[in-house]
Structure formats: structure tokens, C-alpha cells
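Box 3.1 A note on notation
Throughout this textbook, protein chains are presented in two layers. The first layer is the amino acid sequence; the second is a C-alpha cell string describing backbone geometry. Keep the layers aligned when reading.
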Amino acid sequence: MMNNCSDLTQKYYRDGKLPHIWCPGCGHGILLNALVRAIDNLGLDKDNVCVVSGIGCSSRATGYIDFNTLHTTHGRAIAYATGVKHANPDMTVIVVTGDGDCSAIGGNHLIHACRRNIDITTICFNNNIYGMTGGQFSPTTPTGDFATTAPHGNVDRTFDLCSLAQGAGATYVGRATAYHATQLTTLIENGIKNKGFSFIEGISVCPTNYGRKNKKGDSVKMLTYLKDNCIDKKIADKKPELVENKIIIGELYNNPSPEYTECYKTIIDKFQD
């Protein structure tokens, strides 16, 4: 097991693609590091891991890491990943996506991948905004907050991405934040080990295109907010009086069920006998 950051960088990152182009204070680098640490902790063979991304700030991640990677079209990462998994059922397939990429243009792909329970781990880097394209509001921008496309305040209600995934049929669901990076690493490890569709929400911070417009302060202040306003599900279950206005983090759902490619194979085998 490797825990030294420089060793992890040497082993898992593409030298020629660094330094990254994420904005100063962006939380995405922390989330990506949690993913790399999870893969390292599990001792996975790099050649048997495929990481797929769509379009957006989050989806720059596949350019930096040295696995089999696909940087695909907007909202279609899960569709591409489904093809990869079908063609290579033994491969560990991971999707890195953003809140807009995953739950707006890619929303249908998300819910049907959940419904099928295909063995893909999807990690949503949720920064509450379309950061890369100029700060338009996304399905997770809080109601009332400002964006370039909501100059007088967003009137849309927000998706709870984890509730959406669980309701659609995902068999493992978890949430942590850029502040709770160690916990996020553990959730990703458990999600990868789950033989089915796993959805992990990683709450990030975007001080440039979201925080500045909504007067949330710099990255340190935004991370401190996450520290002070999250509550672990185990505590929330025991003390529901503490939950109000808090973000519930931790393992939210874990219910293994038959996996899609295995079910599909039984059909194929039936007609080949």
C-alpha cells in the first residue's frame, strides 16, 4: 500500500499533463486524490481499470491519471462506461462526472444505469454549478442562489443526487465532501467492491464561479462550511434532532442485488447450450 503523495503521483498520474488547470482553491483535486488512494488501497491492476468522464470541470480528471481512460461527450460518460463494462465484464469501470454532466444532460443515463445495477462506480464531483462553461446554474445549485443564468436567484428546486440514485435502483450509495477526503476514499473503495451500480457523491467547492457570485468566501471558508455543516448518517440515525439544515454524509445505502452483465450472460449462455 502506498500512502506517500509523491509516490501516488509518480505511480498514477501522467507527468506530461501536470500541473492541472483547475482553478485555485477548487476541491476537485482532493476528490481525484481520494479516487487514486482508493484504487491504490484496493491494489487494483492499473491495466484492468478504466476511468470514463464526460464534459466539465470534473471530467478533466481523466486527462491527469494513468489508467485506461475515456474523455467522452457531454452527459454520456455512463453510456460509454456501460459499453466498456459489457465488452469487458472483469474490468473495474469507474465514471467521474459533474453535477451538470451527470444529472442534467446525462440524467437518463444515470437513472437507467442505476435501474440495471450494472457494475460501474460513478463518482459525481458536485460543485453546485457548471463551472467550466462560465457558471450557469445546475440541477444541484441551491434554490435562491445566483448563477450567470440566474442573475436574480435560481428558482428551480435541487436534486438530492444520492436519493435520486437510490430511488432509481443503485445498490451502493454514499456521500462525503472535499473536507472529508479520508471518508470519501473509504466510500469509493466500498463502491468499487460492490458488484453492482455504485453512486458516490463527492461535494466539492468552486470558489471561482459559484462561491464568488454567492459571497461564500474563499476555498478555506467554503471547506470550513462543509466541516461545520455535515453530519454522519450513523449519528443522524441516532440523533435525528441534529439533522436539520445539515448535509448527511457517509454510507447511505448498501443493498447488493444481481448484477446486470451477469444476468445478461445467463441469457446468452442459455441459448448457447
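The longest helix spans residues 28-42. The chain has a mean pLDDT of 95.
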